[in-house]
Amino acid sequence: MEKILQVKDLELSFNTFGGEVKAIRGVNFDLYKGETLAIVGESGSGKSVTTKSIMRLLPESSAEFKNGEILFGGRDLTKLSDKEMQKIRGKDISMIFQDPMTSLNPTMPIGRQITEPLLKHQKISKTEARKVAIDLLRLVGMPKPELRMKQYPHQFSGGQRQRIVIAISLACNPQILIADEPTTALDVTIQAQILELMKDLQKKIDTSIIFITHDLGVVANVADRVAVMYGGKIVEIGTVDEIFYNPQHPYTWGLLSSMPSLDTEDAKLYAIPGTPPDLLDPPKGDAFALRSEYAMKIDMEMDPPFFKISDTHMAATWLLHPDAPQVEPPLSVIERMKKFPGSRYYEGSVN
Amino acid sequence: MARYIGKRIIYMVITLALIATFTFFLMKILPGSPIASADKLSPEQRAVVEARYGLDRPLPVQYFDYMFGLLQGDLGVSINQFKGADVTDVILSRMGPSAQIGFQGMVLGTVLGILLGMVAALRQNTWVDYSSTVVAIIGISIPSFVFASMLQYSLGLKLGWFPVALWKDGFMSSVLPSIALAMFPLATAARFIRTEMIEVLGSDYITLAKAKGASGAEIAFKHAFRNALIPLITVLGPMAVAILTGSLVVEQIFAIPGIGEQFVKSIMVSDFSIIMGTTIFFSVFLILVILIVDILYGIIDPRIRLSGGKG
After folding, report:
1. Most CB atoms within 10 A, among A14, A210, B14, B104?
2. 3-state secondary structure chain A
3. Is residue A324 scored above 90 in pLDDT?
4. Do A106 and B205 touch (CB under 8 A)?
């Protein structure tokens, strides 16, 4: 498969009054054409910052690339000037934000907000742009698009506004669409509609999606591959089945155990103890070690490298080292692994 | 919208009637008489003069007579300041210079203030920003008459670019008073726009505009500016008031035959009909400004446009 975006050894810091916050500490991943890559992790894990750094939307005054590169179309996005980035933003890479209630300009008719990227990046007239915008609105399922072009954001509901934001992001048929928790601010039924819409549109326009979320239910629904982030690093990456049914990193175990499921028997829901690391002063070794019941001595001293589990699956934990002792994952995770061919708990086909 | 404005006009008429009533009775409580050297006249002579202006009639009669005239647009005649002249004519002839310096000052101040505030917000925490803050503080804390004297001394007397005072050279005479009047709106607009622009520039829809590929200038002018204007519109009304009352002082200093200068004099000589007329004129002006501001709100912010019908 064709790699459309490569993030290599990316390190980024925020210079604050309190010191240097190491928000991204060596992130590597590839994005393939037409796939949906979900980035999951708790608040402060660096998932939003990673994608904002791809778009270069972080404040230049405080955010600083320390190392690494973001390769897109043969160019390193970390080195482009703001002018060059403006040509990429909204055209090749576009973005959907978390809160549709605040991400549209309240004093501009939505028609103009949709035609803006079209007029900016494509050589078309205003009338043509208007036609495209109406088509886009129809595409995202907005009834009576001609009438609604002249209306302002406050005349739309939250779900409709997110549809408009999606229409804007798709205006120039971007190669990459970054969705930063696009359903978090919506209620559950609307969430489902928006997810369906995004899946539907991806098939139609063949774009790659980076989907940021902390909702594993959403991940299972939309993603082809999943990257789990913790403390400014990716700790495990694999296909959606590998992450859900054969997870290897204790943090992924924690995340999956804390996800309620229909067959959770006891009412008590697991919560990962402790708090995320302070990135002003990141811990030595494995950042998750302090919260992990599986931590070993080496976790406190050395950062684990990536261990390959399959061609598509990698995890950064010392537990995968040949010399590491065998540990038992949490029960709920073992239950999952039983369903995965190739895992050591596989019980064969259930059907 | 039409219904809304109609409703507002009815409120305006009620407000004006109340203002006229209050001013009328307040004036009657004031000591002093509009009749020049009233003390030297014999009671008989005084009665004759008072009768000529209807001042001898009972107060309620005078009041209803005045209000009835007001309804027909008749503000009465000047008693002593412009003996016998129609008050409406007096005000209209005096309005020209005041309107000119007021308008010029307001436009100059608001436009420069907006620019200053925008630049400060876009170059936040740089020397540009800090100097803009200093200008704003100076503009707000130093009263207009101090500016007026400073301008007269520097640009008028020392450099000789503009006439120091009087209203003889048309536009050139209006420059210094306009600048003196502009300082307050300039400082206010700069402060408001800076604060609001910084807030707006941090909002999600600006990030989205950036994500669409908009350039810095497009973001500032197409997206941020209109949203940052809303709070400024709120203070534009009171600012117009400040300009109007501020012009009393500025007109005195520059010896401009404007309405402010004439208003001050009419109070000193207790010319009842001129005081009443000018007060009502000012009130009409202010109420109109407030109405315009409210309509402007709706034009700038579509969210207010819709709810306007309920107000």
Report:
1. A210
2. CCEEEEEEEEEEEEEECCEEEEEEEEEEEEEECCCEEEEECCCCCCHHHHHHHHHCCCCCCCEEEEEEEEEECCEEHHHCCHHHHHHHECCCEEEECCCCCCCCCCCCCHHHHHHHHHHHHCCCCHHHHHHHHHHHHHHCCCCCHHHHCCCCHHHCCHHHHHHHHHHHHHCCCCCEEEEECCCCCCCHHHHHHHHHHHHHHHHHHCCEEEEEECCHHHHHHHCCEEEEEECCEEEEEEEHHHHHHCCCCHHHHHHHHCCCCCCCCCCCCCCCCCCCCCCCCCCCCCCCHHHCCCCCHHHHHCCCCCEECCCCCEECCHHHCCCCCCCCCCHHHHHHHCCCCCCCCCCCCCC
3. no
4. yes
d(CA B101, CA B71): 30
Tell me if A69 sits within 8 A of A78, measured CB to CB: yes
Interchain contact, B301 vs A86, CB within 8 Å? no
Q: Is A228's pLDDT higher than 90?
A: yes
Interface of A to B at Cβ within 8 Å reads 55, 57, 82-83, 86-91, 94-95, 97, 99, 102-109, 116-117, 120-121, 152, 154-155, 165, 168-169
For an interface test with B, the pick among A96, A116, A152, A166 (most B C-beta atoms closer than 10 Å) comes out as A116
Higher-pLDDT residue of A330, A6: A6
Averaged pLDDT score across all residues of chain A: 86
Q: Which residues of B touch A105 (CB under 8 A)?
A: 205, 208-209, 223, 227
Asked if B302 lies within 8 A of A106 by C-beta distance, the reply is: yes
Flag whether pLDDT at A183 surpasses 80.
yes
In this structure, what token pair is assigned to residue A181?
């928790």
What does pTM read for this prediction? 0.79
| d(CA B223, nearest CA chain A) in Å | 7
Per-residue pLDDT of B41-64, as tens digits, reads: 777 777 777 777 777 777 888 888
- List chain A residues with CB under 8 Å of B211: 55, 57, 89-90, 94-95, 97, 169
In the predicted structure, residue A350 carries a pLDDT above the cut 60: no
Q: Which of A55, A82, A109 sits opposite B211 (nearest CB)?
A: A55
Interface residues on B facing A, Cβ-Cβ cutoff 8 A? 203-205, 207-216, 222-223, 226-227, 300-303, 306
For residue A255, pLDDT beyond 80: yes
Residue A263 has pLDDT above 80, yes or no: no
A160 vs A267, more confident: A160
- The whole-chain average pLDDT of chain B stands at 79
Nearest C-alpha of chain B: how many angstroms from A274?
Answer: 31
pLDDT of residue B37: 61
Q: What does the pLDDT read at residue B310?
A: 38
